[in-house]
Amino acid sequence: MAVLAYGLALAYCLLRAADAAFPVPAGAAGRPPWDGGGREEEAAALRESAKRIRLLNSPSNDNGSAFYGKNQFSHLFPEEFKAIYLRSMPYKLPRYIKVPKGVEKPLPKKFDWRDKKVIAEVRNQRTCGGCWAFSVVGSIESAYAIKGNNLEELSVQQVIDCSYGNYGCSGGSTIAALSWLNQV
User: Fold this and answer.
1) Environment class of residue 3 by beta-carbon count within 10 Å: exposed (0-12), middle (13-18) or buried (19+)?
2) pLDDT at residue 51 above 90?
């Protein structure tokens, strides 16, 4: 019981620290938008986010080492977040060959590519709907490093600007971006 109380106290402290970690925008009576100081919809979205955070951090949810808290997106409903940040284009996916039975290898108990130093830092796309380009570039950087090379930082902006068949910050397809990169 003491461990649970300690965990809850720690979670409360971390959530309060998250409030201090983000700069307070001008206006809104000096309160950040995720503090319920904005429009009523933001306050409702914040309440929904707080419920989801409590559920994800609850002892009954086995989420490994992940800890969830308030962030710059907490004042958005999931639908708003999707509309702003997840504007991907649907694209026909290629078919993959199934692995024959008995050929699979057993998976290790724990494996984390970050331990191998082949995963780049997370990049912030801000309001650009370029998740398709960020994911393609991050995958290529990691695949290159997994092959034994140094982890290199490649240009996401070049893929956003130059990949034809995509719409820059207005959305795109990972498949179209990979096809474009194969032709470059």
Assistant:
1) exposed
2) yes
